[in-house]
Amino acid sequence: MIAIDAMMVCLDLSDIDEKLVAFTRSICQHLPINKVYFVHNIKLTELSEDFKETFGDIDLSKEVEASITDIVAEHFEGGCDHEILVSEEPNTEVIMADLVKRYHIKLTLLGKRMSNKSTGALGTKLLRILPCSVLVFPETATFNIERVLTPIDFSDASVHALRLSKSLSSQLGLNLEIMHVYKLPTQYFPLISEEKAINKAKEVIEGRFKDLQKRHQEIADVPYTLVRAAGKSTAERICLQLRKHKYDLLVMGLKGNNPLPSLSLGSVPTELYNMDIDIPLWLVYSEAVIK
Q: Which of 81, 84, 110, 71 is nearest to 5 (CA)?
């Protein structure tokens, strides 16, 4: 059973905040969550001199907290225990990471605008530095979740994501599907038959699926799809699968075993985050990785 002791929701005082707060309420209504922290960091260094001259010594933190309080009051009714935290620090991602550790946050919710509205730079930094699982909610996403897709590459991280997806699906009555994107060594064509290579690849992968099902009986009945990359990246194939079959949630595991923070996120999750996907993306770390 999935239970979350503490959840953090990152707000930026834009029009997506209302959707994030309402989505958080929906999560609280479906999963046992003890407490939610609605957070915002004011980067005073980015305030213009005109702002300072116009508003003088205004207590900006108090004003921001009042604004968030109004949004929470309107869109979080019926949610769970919550607290609003407003900080004034020069580095947003560092203070958010500190909050995750201080309040033992298990899940952070981030909003994401389409690429024509935002570079997504802060979101990418947060994904790389936050020591917890992250749920990315695009501005075009909806709250209705019925079909879940979990891509796997048979790594420990992807198997962890798959088991979490299965638990979530069983808990909420969702339809879960697995996909695996495989690539062929095309540089050896036509020295070897492409058809034989495809059949052999499928045979090997299906053998790995059977072995996985033996080790984790709970996923034995979950349907899976094999997709050939065929000149596209793994992330591109996953994105095409999402659009073709209209899933409502994408769950992926994060390895986090690289000592370089800028590389710990992984290329596929990074590429998917930077795409204009209109469904929530849940990027999960295992407890062992976080520790």
A: 81
Average pLDDT score over the chain: 87
- Give burial (CB, 10 Å; 0-12/13-18/19+) of 38: buried
| Structural domains in the chain (count) | 2
CATH number at residue 273: 3.40.50.620
Residues 53 and 23 in one domain: yes
- When pLDDT is cut at 50, 70 and 90, the band that residue 263 belongs to is very low
| Mean pLDDT for the stretch of residues 214-232 | 92
- Give the per-residue pLDDT at 121: 78
pLDDT, mean of residues 144-164: 93
H or E segment and range at residue 283: strand 281-284
**157 and 260 assigned to the same domain:** yes
Rounded Cα distance, 193 and 188, in Å: 9
How much of the chain is helix, strand and coil, in % rounded to 5?
45, 20, 35
Give the domain range for residue 36.
1-142
Residues contacting 231, CB < 8 A, separation 6+? none
